[in-house]
Amino acid sequence: MPLVMSGQEGARIAPSAQEIEAIARRTLAALPDEFRRHLGEIVLIVEDFADDETLKALDIESPFDLTGVYHGRPIGEKSSMESGAVPDRIHLYRRAILDEWIEDGEDLATLVRHIVIHEVGHHFGLSDDDMHRLEDET
After folding, report:
1. The pLDDT of residue 5 is above 70
2. Does residue 67 lie in a domain region?
3. What confidence score (pLDDT) does residue 18 get?
4. CA 101 → CA 58, 71, 105, 109, distances in Å?
5. CA dist., res. 58 & res. 97, Å (int)
6. Model-level pTM?
7. What number is the average pLDDT over the span 71-77?
8. Measured by CB atoms within 10 angstroms of the end CB, which terminus of the chain is less buried, N or C?
9. pLDDT score of 6
């Protein structure tokens, strides 16, 4: 049974993990080519919450405080000689995203886009300013 979230416009059906993943994939597809061509191996995972290990590693107490995280090595730190490495992953945390969506009243697609671009920025080792510019281009 889907969650029903109440917001400013009244009750809304909470989007599923698949719907959030679809928004995230559209965001990745809309990235400028110089970024997109280097993202082929990134795995996108949508879960309700971050696991305890991730929360502890990031010193985050509440799972509602983490909407997404990049796991892997930034592209500038990788070697072409690596083999057998676990692919980099972007984790999106649905319940934390939905909580922020309701609290801020922001459009869900805009919020997910912001989170995905921030995590892609970690893959490329971008600064916050660079991430904002990339978000403006997408």
Report:
1. no
2. yes
3. 96
4. 22, 23, 6, 10
5. 17
6. 0.81
7. 71
8. N
9. 47
Q: How far apart, in whole angstroms, are the C-alpha atoms of residue 135 and residue 129? A: 10
- Which residues have a Cβ under 8 Å from the Cβ of 100 and sit 6 or more positions away? 67, 106, 111
Q: What is the CATH number of the domain that holds 52?
A: 3.30.2010.20
- Between CA 65 and CA 29 the distance in angstroms is 27
Provide the greatest CA pair distance for the chain: 54
- Is 91 within the bounds of a domain? yes
Q: What angle do CA 41, 112, 44 make, to 5 degrees?
A: 20
Domain that holds residue 108: 12-74+86-137
| Mean pLDDT across 20-42 | 86
Angle ∠(69,87,65) on CA atoms, nearest 5: 10
Q: Are strands 89-93 and 68-71 parallel, antiparallel or unpaired?
A: antiparallel
Judge whether 123 and 42 are in contact, CB under 8 Å. Answer: yes
Q: How close are the terminal C-alpha atoms of the chain, in Å? A: 34
At CA 63, angle to CA 61 and CA 66, rounded to 5? Answer: 100
Residue located via tokens 């990745």: 28
